[in-house]
Specification:
Two copies of one chain form a homodimer.
Chain A (H helix, E strand, L loop, with lengths): L17 E14 L2 E8 L2 E7 L1 H9 L7 E10 L12 E12 L16 H6 L1 H4 L3 H23 L3 E2 L17 E3 L7 E3 L5 H9 L4 E9 L11 E10 L3 H20 L8 E4 H8 L13 E5 L2 E2 L10 H5 L2 E7 L7 H12 L9 E5 L5 E3 L7 H10 L7 E7 L1 H18 L10 E5 L4 E4 L4 E4 L12 H6 L22 E6 L2 E8 L4 H10 L4 H14 L7 E7 H8 L30 H7 L1 E3 L5
Parallel strand pairs in A: 3-5, 6-9, 11-18
Antiparallel strand pairs in A: 1-2, 1-4, 2-3, 4-5, 7-8, 9-10, 10-23, 12-13, 12-14, 14-17, 15-16, 15-17, 18-21, 19-20, 21-22, 22-23
């Protein structure tokens, strides 16, 4: 061992002891004839004192930043103590030292406020990981891993590994594929999740399964998506939805307790999918703050009676009109409201404008559409929106889905602006009763909102079995019996981020076939892709269900960040590249030859 | 929840309680007017008693094997107790039951002595996993996983995930590659191990790292190899070899204690590579038994002086002559010795014959080469082999490597035959001081015996730095200074199986470059493949080393098996196929098109 102690453990109890430390040179400060060196390792920083004689040798062979050294000497009480660090009461009077390895001057400083840009730090990720911020992120990640395992172990779950080289059955996202050399012309796929395997494990009787496991999706990367990501993957047999909600409410609370020392005592709020969309505009509500939506008009129906019979074309032709009420916003300046109008017009939001009503402290009301409404009528609308004196009502209108999405974004922006989204506050929500299907306009067919293995609510099974999934009248797809079948599915949402999702699964062959058929798979395709699962359901498949959590996301949120990249040791950039390794890269002709594939550059 | 209790927990303390169980029908036994059903789940088996009335309903709708049912009733003490199972004191008097799912008749019986063949059980793996043997294997695997994590956690290791989509740098085994859609014409590789990443983590200062992680090798599969396998991967900084041996001796003993309740108290035996090869013929000795080799002649040098000046051409022309001494083997019949001769002639062993000396209980000696040696000379050879009266000496001769390998196999066979390889006995060995290089005849160059990141022993570094790696005289490669450079490397061996291996790594750029050059990599190739690592070594890389254990193998050996396949939930067959999924398989033209690759069937 190159050391007797770490750089984080020495204190006054070690006074006068002879010790050896090893670590990295953080700083070198010459102070007259002597030299102070801060030595850093994973555990902390210790001050080394080089006496006059040693300082002379340093003059000849200077220590540089990030040199790796080993230093032996006596621990000594400092007169000038540093109370900010655990080792601040002592220093090491160096009697001898060895340079274990030198370092070039690092391309950026190894400090919290580093001077390195993103690209540079990604290229030198091994240096960036030396910074205490990233080190703490890795520590937190391991703590979440450990807490998850401990809880699930206590609950009788077994970690069972599922394969990585599986069969390509793309549904939704693209698979990464792996050419097989031994079976030329054929490919494995990397799993998008262990979904079918965990279901097979339930059929096998394992009853409580989990894994913390890498998954792969070949998607065009949006910001903060990674082609490989980690999931806490869980499944249980002989359970109903309520059992799963209880079990994993327990898990997340255990993680909060173990990792953050937060006692999340109250039951996790539960919101149905339709309530969530109605009140927050989306299915992953940030419930740290209110600013709930006011539904003035929905899909052509005026909900707020005061809108009836007005002559305001914009409102009259809009499918949906939604508002949020900003407390004390009535004194927003013209500049401020103009900025909000510009904000909703940005391509990411894509609205054509923003209407507003200001309800003054003096009970006067003003709006951006004064000429179509009397003051009395504006008062009524403001009252409908539960506005108090001094409030500002922001109104968006347009097509239902687009408007709802836009106002949910506006709500988040206003929450941010008003300081209502404290990253040290945590609010969890279960969202449940999702629609089972979504309508796919292009194919005029159904797609699975969650995945094809999710069961309908028990009360909706007969509706699914007894109706033809075919959509004969595309314009009125909403009237098809499948449109309002609810899924036996649930998401866990933390501060507006979906951190987990799951469902009770289908466990009967006939219902699974009906589901596949609804998604446009004929019998041949079903057999080719999922024959093994349909087969397994015929040999005593128990009722079962499960959930998967986004492990990277949970770590980032507990760390107070929205970026998962800082919580992954070696992440990829938005082009899916590892800039440190310079991967992906070309491979040898010999490799292509052995795999019996050729490049076929199409410049698509 | 579909149950109040599991099928493994009810006993007399639950007598008269109303409970609900759910599980699989193991057996149905009609007994006059009543019916007994054994209900099985992961936790055990409980006997259900269906009364006359319910038995009548069963007559109409019979329960079949592997039906999934839910049964409610009262727990009742049995008159006829079964002491073999934990629930054997009670039965459940069923008052109502529900069939949760039916089952076809399974293709093989779900019992320890199943009637299903290998292929069939692989295809229906989800049913095979219901058998208690495979269930116990998965339980043992999880226990090893858990023990490993607990020990390493106590020792301050952090689990840090490394990427799966990395760069192809094939050295030795082939990489599996993954075409990148976003970077057309380029490929990721799946890791053969996280080797370079764990070294970068040491450079980053993480100091104690571990992972239980999937690795991938595209090799032609020998029996009991899998294209994807699991490794316990560990690395430490600021350590010497001794620190690593201590740390991981602790790990394996902890696993033995936790998983097998075995207190492996004595220190693990340590054998240098050359001693191992000298005494056992290989570098993974099974030390549960002796039968050490007798080196009569090695590489042309007679070690046993009695061989000098004899007229026996076979011995005289042989490069190497090795023997093992079988206690009490002198009374082997002609048939028995003939069988051994046939055995060594099998293509897997490939020797041309087997000589022997029988030292009778009456002190007479006989041999298969009597006419070349006097009885006195045979006595001397027998004495040299430490043979006692009644022993049989088996002698192989031929080229050094081949003969040594053959006799090590013969030793194992004889150990087996003599009942010296008890699968419930465990003997661990550290083998150390491996050669750093192996000679590659084809390329007339060096290859790394372990891997290119292994450091030479400190005392051999100057020999490596100060000599040219080029082999100018191929015939005398053994005289090249590199031939006897020792690696700072070590393997852990259990009962003749290598279960782990590691090394102190190179951490200086110059030495790493020298190593790459010795392996035939020019500067351009070094930069292309390992530029990131060479670069990292310039920024303060600490001394470090590590080890990786074969997780599947450890589980199999602790389970008393030599087959890893039974310890993997969903293994592949020898052709790398998952016969349950039917993977690998062809993929859609659309997928190939997006990846910009084409099939190029060459029928190689």
């Amino acid at each position: 061992m190159y050391r007797t102690h770490t750089c984080g453990e020495l204190n006054l109890s070690h006074n006068h002891k002879q010790v050896t430390l090893a670590g990295w040179v953080q700083t070198v400060r010459k102070f007259g004839a002597i030299t102070f060196v801060d030595l850093r390792d994973r555990y902390g920083i210790t001050q080394l004192l080089f006496n006059e004689e040693l300082t002379k040798t340093l003059d000849i062979n200077p220590l540089g930043r990030e040199f790796v050294i080993q230093a032996t000497g006596k621990v000594s009480e400092r007169t000038n103590k540093n109370t900010k660090i655990p080792t601040g009461a002592i220093e090491l009077l160096v009697s001898s030292f060895t340079i274990l390895n030198k370092s070039l001057v690092p391309p950026f400083t190894i400090q919290d406020d580093t001077d390195g840009g993103d690209e540079l730090r990604m290229k030198y990720r091994f240096l960036d990981l030396r910074r205490s911020e990233l080190k703490k992120n890795m520590e937190l990640r391991y703590a979440v891993n450990r807490a998850t395992r401990n809880y699930l172990h206590q609950q009788n779950f077994w970690d069972i590994e599922t394969p990585f080289l599986i069969k390509s059955t793309p549904e939704g996202a693209r698979d990464f594929v792996v050419p097989s050399r031994m079976n030329a012309g054929e490919f494995y796929a990397l799993p998008q999740s262990p979904q079918t395997f965990k279901q097979l494990l339930m059929v096998s009787g394992f009853d409580r399964y989990f894994q913390i496991v890498k998954c792969f999706r070949d998607e065009d990367l949006r910001a903060d998506r990674q082609p490989e990501f980690t999931q806490i993957d869980c499944e249980m047999a002989f359970v109903q939805q309520e059992d799963i909600l209880q079990m994993f409410e327990g898990l997340i609370k255990y993680i909060f307790k173990e990792v953050k020392k937060i006692d999340y005592a109250e039951p996790i709020e539960r919101i149905s999918w339709s309530d969530s969309v109605w009140n927050y505009g989306n299915d992953k509500p940030d419930t740290r703050f209110g600013l709930k939506l006011k539904n003035l008009k929905v899909r052509g129906e005026n909900v707020c009676p005061e809108l009836e019979g007005k002559n305001f074309g914009v409102f009259n032709t809009a499918e949906t009109i939604l508002a949020i009420c900003i407390p004390d916003g009535a004194d927003y300046s013209r500049k401020q409201t103009d900025e909000l109008i510009e904000w909703v017009k940005r391509p990411q939001i894509g609205m054509s404008g923003l209407a507003f009503i200001k309800k003054g402290k003096d009970e006067t009301v003003k709006s951006s559409f004064d000429k179509f409404f009397t003051e009395q009528e504006l008062h009524s609308v403001a009252n409908y929106c539960s506005a108090s004196s001094g409030d500002l009502i922001l109104i968006l209108c347009g097509a239902e889905e687009k408007t709802r999405k836009a106002i949910s974004e506006l709500r988040l922006k206003m929450g941010e602006q008003l300081g209502l989204r404290n990253k040290n506050e945590y609010k969890l929500v279960w969202v449940y009763d999702f629609p089972l299907f979504e309508y796919d306009e292009e194919g005029n067919r159904w797609v699975a909102r969650h995945h094809p293995f999710t069961a309908p609510k028990p009360s909706d099974i007969s509706k699914m079995i007894n109706n033809d999934s075919k959509i004969s009248d595309a314009a009125n797809y909403l009237n098809h019996p499948y449109a309002d079948i609810k899924a036996n599915a649930y998401d866990m949402v933390l501060n507006g981020n979906e951190i987990g999702g799951g469902s009770i699964r289908i466990h009967q062959r006939a219902l699974q076939e009906k589901m596949f058929a609804a998604l446009g798979m004929d019998e041949e395709e079903q057999t080719h892709k999922f024959g093994f699962l349909l087969g397994a359901f015929e040999y005593g498949a128990p009722p079962h269900g499960g959930i998967a959590f986004g492990f990277d996301r949970i770590c980032a949120l507990l760390g107070g960040s929205e970026s998962i990249r800082d919580y992954i040791a070696f992440p990829k950039n938005n082009a899916g590249r590892d800039v440190m390794l310079d991967a992906p890269s070309t491979i040898d002709e010999k490799q292509l030859h052995e795999l019996q594939i050729k490049l076929d550059s199409k410049k698509i």
